[in-house]
Design a protein that fits this description.
Radius of gyration of chain A: 23 Å
Oligomer: heterodimer
CATH superfamily of the largest domain in chain A: Response regulator
CATH topology of the largest domain in chain A: Rossmann fold
Number of strands of chain B: 2
Number of helices of chain B: 16
Strand content of chain A: 15-25%
Strand order of the largest sheet of chain A: 2-1-3-4
Strand content of chain B: under 5%
Largest interface: A-B, 31 and 33 residues
CATH topology of chain B: ABC transporter involved in vitamin B12 uptake, BtuC
Number of domains of chain A: 2
Shape of chain A: globular
CATH class of the largest domain in chain A: Alpha Beta
Number of strands of chain A: 12
CATH architecture of the largest domain in chain A: 3-Layer(aba) Sandwich
Radius of gyration of chain B: 20 Å
CATH architecture of chain B: Orthogonal Bundle
Helix content of chain B: over 70%
Chain lengths: ~450, ~350
């Protein structure tokens, strides 16, 4: 390296450093850079930010979903160990609601009225969270990134303080339907859906894309009744060559086992909610009481699904590298599966929003930050957030389960939640920040 | 004289509750409302099981009837909330009367089985007609603080006042009923329905009456609980709730109204206290989530071992008072053999 080159490098470095300082000042406001950290809102002190959540840590919904909050907490630990949010540490208090709405009501009141949390983050479940969303909105508590794809969280007039996060079920139904419509043009299609908003929104999206003449059967199940043999027999009788399932993991596994029992082998297309290969393989083996190695994976082989977070098998992806790093440092006891990825990814979004809310944020500041839109994080598609839209992730890629892992089979497509809205290819996902922490 | 004593005690308690509603934090006020709603439902059940000797594991279903009546009236009719509560009580009482007429023919475990069916089936009605009852999602029950209390009066305190006031009224009414001729007749048929019927009591009518009183209380409890939770949701009124009510009644002391208060306090406060205890002692989330369930079981076993007549029975023994004339937890199950045809005919006259 010659001398002039070295000077050039030094100049560029100096310029870059100056630019960073200027940018840092600009982004944090004129006076706030030096201002002291204050107790700017309930749950916020000079030292910490207390947030709360309701999660199913025991009960029917616990298997798999009980990994989400500890994974989010692992990311918060990581952020806390690397300077926190403007120096404050995040304290995440998540209480067990057993997926029972009346317990959800109790624990959320405790978090808001007694523990004075700043916000409720990633409360899990549609029926459970619906029980508390009106209360949180009447108390003007930020109710951010609900762990459910119900379209109900996108209600900026009736629930202005509530925001979704994951791909909503209408968009997901449309994306799956779009793929089916392109690749199974002449086949008979049947639906198998949970009999609530989850299944209902999903079917709504599917019907937007799949012509009615192709749909030969629509079966639903009640998540409290595991005897689904009649529905599966009806699916078989319909002669459907493709069965689309909006089901939670346990019922995806039951559907597959009942199909095997009836020697019925259509192409299965499953919502992201019920298709995590690792969770599914475990459930299949345990339901069938099989100890044969690879039994679960042999049954999930070939299932078509979608993904809105980068595929876990894509180890060269910067986001998956970050995921592995956080998981191995702070959450190593749990196997790295889709639930852990979900928990870390949604925590990343919260940290993005908190940085954007400013040094001494009020509760309104967090909401304003989200309403102004958030930059894309872990998700493969951008967020929909605006003052009039509280949906989160807007797109996904199609994937096939092969040997117990998701392998993408198409580009990331983005759509909206209207019946006529079209599809477009998402811009390439920006790389993960090297520090693993979103920039303010 | 009894009435004066009961009203006096209720007024004294009311005064304490008002003071508490100002000194306690918002979350405690909110818990006061929850406990009070439970007390109403448990008091109704303890009268049914402890006094009239009929075992019901289905009172959660009547709470659901009360809750959904309130929600539907609030949405479609828009009466003042107090009037809606009264209407919900009437609706639930009618439902209880209809079921009671059928149930009066059943004894012991057969009656328990029928009420169990009720507890399992009723929440599904809401799921089966989502257009009317809102399906899994349920219906909103949103009330506001009345204007005369001013704009800064917290909703939690208003809910605490509302539910505690209703609870005290119900307790006074039930206490008087238990001390009246009806109460004595119930005890008579609980202890020996053949003897009661030979003594000229109308056993069937008394049984139905007990069901009506108990379901009316459950209906009011459910209506208030829905108001407290701001929604009527089928999942809130599951079999677990019905069994919880019975647990509270037995834990407090079957047939005892103060026992209904102790039982409700234990069932509402212990789980929330234990969750915090587990979390604050640095247990992992999974372990601290399991602590309340485990300790709850231990508490049940201990109370039943140490105080077979419930907490109230234990308190009376501790104070050296005479044992209350409460039923043992299993008296409702004791008479397992179906009575002979002759007795049944006599009972129905």
């Amino acid at each position: 390296m010659n001398r002039s080159h070295r000077v050039k490098v030094a100049t560029v470095a100096a310029l870059a450093a100056t630019a960073m300082v200027v940018a840092a000042c600009g982004s944090s406001g004129s006076s706030s850079k030096s201002s002291a950290l204050t107790a700017s809102a309930p749950g916020i002190t000079a030292k910490q930010i207390l947030i709360g959540s309701h999660q199913p840590l025991t009960g029917i919904a616990a298997p798999g979903y009980d990994e989400i909050a500890p994974a989010s907490n692992a990311y918060f630990q990581y952020v806390n160990a690397h300077g926190g949010i403007y120096g404050r540490k995040i304290v995440y208090k998540y209480l067990n609601d057993q997926y029972n709405p009346s317990i959800t009501t109790t624990v959320v009141h405790q978090l808001v009225l007694q523990d004075n949390v700043y916000a409720i983050f990633n409360g899990l479940g549609t029926p459970t969270h619906l029980a508390v969303a009106p209360f949180l909105n009447s108390e003007k508590v930020p109710d951010v990134f609900v762990a459910s794809g119900c379209e109900c969280w996108n209600a900026t007039s009736s629930l202005p303080w509530t925001t979704g996060w994951q791909l909503d079920y209408i968009r997901e139904g449309k994306l799956l339907g779009h793929y089916i419509e392109q690749h199974f043009k002449t086949d008979k299609i049947a639906f198998f859906a949970q009999d609530d908003e989850f299944g209902g929104d999903g079917v709504k999206g599917l019907e937007d894309e799949i012509p009615a003449r192709q749909i030969v059967a629509k079966e639903t199940y009640d998540p409290s009744n595991v005897k689904i043999a009649p529905q599966v027999a009806a699916l078989k009788a319909s002669g459907a060559q493709v069965v689309v399932s909006f089901s939670v993991p346990a019922f995806t596994a039951l559907l597959k086992l009942n199909m095997v029992g009836l020697k019925y082998n259509p192409q299965l297309v499953v919502s992201d909610v019920g298709s995590d290969p690792i969770t599914l393989a475990g459930l299949l083996a345990s339901f069938a009481k099989s100890k044969v190695a690879g039994f679960g994976n042999s049954l999930t082989q070939g299932i078509i699904t979608d993904g809105y977070l980068p595929s876990l098998g894509d180890t060269s992806n910067s986001w998956i590298k970050l995921l592995n790093k956080i998981h191995s440092q702070y959450d190593a006891k749990t196997p790295l599966d889709g639930n852990v990825a979900y928990g870390i990814a949604v925590a990343f979004t919260f940290v993005q929003a908190m940085f954007k809310a400013g040094r001494n944020p009020t509760r309104q500041d967090l909401l304003n930050a989200i309403n102004a839109g958030l930059p894309q994080g872990f998700s493969v598609a951008p967020y929909a957030y605006s003052a009039s839209n509280h949906n989160g992730i807007t797109g996904a890629f199609m994937a096939k389960i092969e040997n117990g892992a998701l392998s993408p089979i198409g580009p990331v497509l983005v759509t909206d939640d209207t019946p006529t809205g079209g599809f477009s290819t998402a811009p390439a996902q920006p790389a993960a920040p090297a520090s693993g922490i979103p920039s303010p | 004289m009894t009435l004066v004593k009961h009203v006096g005690a209720a007024l004294a308690v009311a005064l304490i509750l008002v003071v508490l509603s100002y000194t306690l934090g918002q979350y405690r006020q909110y818990q006061m409302a929850e406990v009070a709603a439970w007390v109403i439902a448990v008091a109704g059940l303890t009268i049914l099981v402890g006094l009239s000797g009929q075992l019901s594991v289905g009172n959660g279903a009547f709470m659901a009837v009360g809750a959904f009546s309130t929600a539907l009236l609030l949405i479609h009719v828009g009466w003042p909330i107090e009037l809606i509560f009264v209407a919900s009580v009437v609706i639930t009482a009618v439902a209880g009367a209809i079921f009671g007429v059928a149930a009066a023919r059943l004894r012991g475990p057969y009656l328990a089985g029928a009420t169990l069916m009720l507890a399992v089936a009723v929440p599904f009605v809401a799921v089966a007609w989502p257009g009317v009852f809102g399906g899994d999602q349920g219906l909103d029950v949103l009330v506001a603080v009345p204007g005369f209390l001013g704009p800064l009066f917290p909703l939690t305190r208003w809910l605490a006042w509302l539910t505690c006031a209703f609870a005290l009224v119900v307790l006074v009414l039930l206490a008087n009923l238990a001390h009246s001729k009806v109460g004595r007749s119930w005890r008579a048929l609980r202890d020996d329905d053949v003897a009661a019927s030979l003594a000229g009591l109308n056993v069937a009518r008394l049984r139905v009456l007990a069901f009506v009183v108990s379901s009316a209380c459950a209906g009011l409890g459910g209506a208030l609980l829905a108001t407290w939770a701001a929604s009527a949701n089928p999942d809130d009124f599951s079999l677990t709730l019905s069994i919880g009510l019975l647990t509270a009644a037995v834990l407090g002391g079957l047939g005892s109204l103060p026992g209904a208060i102790w039982g409700s306090l234990v069932l509402v406060l212990v789980p929330s206290y234990l969750t915090n205890l587990g979390a604050s002692h640095g247990l992992s989330s999974g372990a601290s989530a399991s602590v309340p369930i485990a300790v709850y079981g231990v508490v049940l076993i201990l109370v039943m071992l140490l105080f077979p007549t419930g907490i109230q029975g234990g308190i009376r023994r501790f104070l050296g008072l005479a044992a209350p004339a409460a039923a043992s937890p299993f008296s409702a199950l004791r008479r397992q053999e179906p009575p002979s045809k002759r007795h049944q005919e006599k009972g129905m006259t």
